[in-house]
Every structure is written in C-alpha cells, then in structure tokens.
Amino acid sequence: MVFVRLRKIIFVHGCFWHQHRCRRGNRIPNSHRRYWIEKLHKNVARDKRNLRNLRRLSWKILVVWECQTRNLSKLTAKLEAFLSA
C-alpha cells in the first residue's frame, strides 16, 4: 500500500516467499531444493535492493509479515503507529 502524501509504504510479505524467520518462512521444500533455494534467495535480495532504493528516496517503509496478520489488535496498533508517526 502506498500513501503518497505521507511518503509511506506498507509491504505485506508472505513468510515463505520472502523468507521470514518464523516457522513458516524458515523452510525449503524437499523437492527441487536447488531451484527453491535459488528462487527464494533471489526474492530476498530483490526485497533488500528495493527497500534500500526506496529509503534513499526518503520513503518510510513498514514490512508486515503474513504471520503478523493473525493478531488483529497487535497489527492494528502497529499500523496506526506507523501511519501516525
């Protein structure tokens, strides 16, 4: 989500696809392991590159992980704090 007037961006990342350190993200499928390792490492590298470039352009960024969406009250507080700061 992009909030142009606030110069803020919220990314919602899937834990597996973006390799979060939670139990869902911290795994590699057993079949075609080489493919998955390469694919997921490229995703992480792309994410880092994109975040770095956006920060250089003075954007404030919040990454919300898939696993963090399960606790609605905690997520709401996090989003409110980010958007109001």
Sum up the structure in keywords:
85 residues; alpha+beta; flat
Walk me through the structure.
The chain is an alpha+beta fold and 85 residues long. 44% of the residues lie in helices and 16% in strands. The protein has two helices and three strands. It has helices spanning 33-56, 72-84, and strands spanning 2-3, 8-13, 60-65. Strands 1-2-3 form a three-stranded mixed beta sheet, sandwiched between helices. Strand 1 (2-3) and strand 2 (8-13) form a beta hairpin. The protein is flat, with a radius of gyration of 15 Å. The two termini are 16 Å apart. The relative contact order is 0.21. The mean pLDDT is 97.
**What is the terminal-to-terminal distance?**
16 Å
Beta-strand share of residues? 15-25%
Number of helical stretches of at least 4 residues = 2
Sheet/helix structural class:
alpha+beta
**How many beta-strand segments?**
3
Helix-strand pattern: EEHEH
Question: Radius of gyration over alpha carbons?
Answer: 15 Å
| Uncertain spans | none
The largest pleated sheet is described as:
3 strands, mixed
What is the overall silhouette?
flat
Strand order of the largest sheet: 1-2-3
What is the percent of helical residues? 40-55%
Q: Give the overall pLDDT as a whole number.
A: 97
